[in-house]
Protein: Bacterial extracellular solute-binding protein, family 5 Middle
Organism: Bifidobacterium ramosum
Amino acid sequence: MYPPQRRTTLRSAIVTKEKEPFIMSLLSTSRARTAGLAAVLALSLGLAGCGAVPDDNSSSAASQDSTTPVSGGVLRFGTKDEPGNGGLDPMIASVYASTSILNQIYDTLIVKGDDGQFEPSLATEWKQVDDTTYDFTLRQGVKFADGSDLTPSDVIWSFNYVKEKSPQSKAAVLKNLTNVTDKGGNVIEFKFSQPTPSFLNTVGDRLSGFYIVDQQWYEKTSEADRQKTSNGTGPFALEAWNKGKDVKLTRNTHYWEKGKPYLDGIDFVKVADENALLALVQQGQADAAWFWKPELAEQAKSNGLTLGKLQQTSTRFLFIDPNYDDGTLNNIKVRQALSKAIDRDAIIKIGTSGRGAKTFANPPAVAGLDTPTDETPNTKYDPDGAKKLLAESGDPNPTISLAYGADTADAPVFELMKDQLSKVGITLELKPVPYEEIQGIFTTGDKYMADLVLVQDVIGADPASAFTWWLTTGSNVDRWGDNEQAASAKELLGKIETNADDTSRVKQINELNNLIAEQVLALTPFATPLDYQVWSSKVHGYQTDPGDSRYHFKDTWLSK
């Protein structure tokens, strides 16, 4: 049940090291960068908020991986999800269930390692020439999975396509891109009309979807077939997507990184019921799996499986449509009362079993930014204040609807929230719906089906991406439009998007988070780890990564 990767969509990468603080690449980039230099300013910060996440990396993983990798074998990975809206079309798909697989098939120009540093991928060198110009030197000899050569024109076409035809959540990053040109010598120049400090962060994010695509293949392949076939430069290629059953990947024999991947393939096996998934992995019918329910992952760990490192990277967003139905949430006092009536501490303690934390739009794992306190507007539990605001609003007993994916593990949280709100006179109408309906909002701009719509957000490539995909006027998710109540926030976001000064950008992002809390333009009641991944003792070389992109599959091998 994941949204687009902005992000994030949209989504700076968190960095983890054993026994060391989390680090996040936060801000704008310096004037010149190469593969050998630190790519972004990194600021360190321990996890904040209630219920700090424990370090669950098993020492057995390190001891297993000290032996020599062995090639061969197919990894069976159990999952509740399969590709969502857009399928496996690299230019259209934007939900996590799709991009976490696309990331195995396609490459970006650069990537971020687990330490937050930019690393070469399809580009071997890169530099920021000035505030609005970037140069990338392409790796030579790269081939697509069908054996055709990667060319500079493929790169130029890929970025132009994203800007002109991809979903708004991706295209927004390139809105100020004026030209992409081949300078010769395998150097591609990107020219913007104004500073775009999020550009390198986003291009370097494995899940944001800025994949380099074979133009000839894409243009000759039908829209339907693009969703179920592939031709990338990544370590694996799509063998088959059997809807409702599995997604099968096979080794890309033309992959440019010598000797990898070790696996012959990966079989993502769909098992909708998490208890059945647990049984599958415990019985050895799956080599690895991920869970939403932490108690099941803990049970797997107690039975000898490795539980990957946990990071509070996933914010629960309750997006607001102020115009839904009779416009109940267009009234700021109703929104503020709603926020004050939510007991976040109780939700974290009871609803998330202490694994959650209070959060702004940026989750706690984003280092260097403020986290909510009792002084944050409308965040402290204040039922008396909520009742007062409702009395002043002219709507003392409003009914507010909340839509969420029917299979979410957060359903008990919303029952708890419903009980909390009832104590101040708010009736919360819960509307579980197929998550495909919610996906339609951020992929194709479908209408909201409730006053509030839940999206389990994932961390974005740049801190500003926590806002751009839902607060940018005209985006698929934005329902504030030209509503004056959101004008100040939208104006501040515009400044953040073009601010190349690291220090002032941090201040602006903190200011925006507080402004959103004051105006209650969206609700972010808590954050948790994105998921809980486990794997058996026969799996070597795999580890969870800070961006939850699962890119270590290319390093994974199986015991014979």
Q: What stands out?
A: The first strand starts at residue 14 and ends at 15. The chain has two domains: 74-308+532-558, 314-528. The two ends are 34 Å apart (CA to CA).
